[in-house]
Amino acid sequence: MKKVLHGLGVLLIALLLWQILAMIVAAPMLPYPIQVLRNLAGAISGSLPLHIAYSLARICISVVISIIVGIPLGIAIGYSPLLNRLLSPFLYLSYPIPKLALLPIIMLLFGLGESSKVIMIFLILFFPITVDIAGSVRAMDKEIFQTMKAFGVGGPAIARKIILPGILPAILDSLKVSIGIALSILFFAENYGTRYGLGYHTMNSWQKMDYLDLYSGIFALSILGFILFLLLDFIYDRVTAWR
């Protein structure tokens, strides 16, 4: 609740600064926040929920795939010196590549449909999750692993009972950072081969010079990101209470 109230306080300050700036600029391209909020309230009964649903679905699918692929791979790289030597060079060489630069290639390979958008967001999420998890596993006390092995506990059981609970904070922290970046990439990815999504809605409004819909889309994207951050914070507090 404190985080929600803090977020609302920050939002009110941002709206106040927006109001002051709009009064100074006094131009149609920067409407007053009350106008945008009224337009947003009206858009909720229109097509905006559908755009939000499409964007949220793409984010959620990408997050699930990233977790399914990134967590086991990160644990394996962090736990096994051999896999670390084999896979880390590839991982660290690929990580710095700007993922937005790969968008045309991904669309050529996978088309303009949903697959290319999900793959694009997956690449944004996959690398930081895998790298952070591998680093967290390497930072764990190796004596714990040796003790478990001395009692005849195998690698899969160690990963499930020791490593996975220990790296949960790193997983959630990586998701919080990565989802913010993924939302910004989604803004560009949704401008190709689709008619639904907050990115499409916002850019389409800009092309039509519909400034109220433009700012409504940006506002909705911000609220979506804020809700996702709150959800991850809620999960973080529940699953890491042992800390």
Task: Characterise this structure.
The protein has 243 residues and is an all-alpha fold. The protein has one domain: MetI-like fold (Orthogonal Bundle), CATH 1.10.3720. Helices cover 82% and strands 0% of the residues. It is built from ten helices and no strands. The two termini are 20 Å apart.
The CATH homologous superfamily corresponds to MetI-like
Annotation, overall tally of beta strands: 0
The helicity comes to: over 70%
Oligomer: single chain
Rg on CA atoms, Å:
21 Å
Low-confidence stretches: none
Rounded mean pLDDT score: 81
Question: How large a portion of the residues is in β-strands, by DSSP E?
Answer: under 5%
Coarse shape? elongated
CATH architecture: Orthogonal Bundle
Quickly give the structural class.
mainly alpha
CATH names the topology as MetI-like fold
Give the end-to-end Cα distance, rounded to a whole number of Å: 20 Å
Element-by-element helix/strand order:
HHHHHHHHHH
Number of helical elements? 10
Give the domain tally. Answer: 1
Give the class-level CATH name: Mainly Alpha
Q: Quick gist of this model?
A:
The protein has 243 residues and is mainly alpha-helical.
SSE diagram, text form:
Layout: H1 2-25, H2 33-44, H3 48-79, H4 81-94, H5 103-110, H6 114-139, H7 142-150, H8 155-189, H9 198-207, H10 211-239
Helix pairs in contact: 2-10, 3-4, 3-6, 3-8, 3-9, 5-6, 6-8, 8-9, 8-10, 9-10
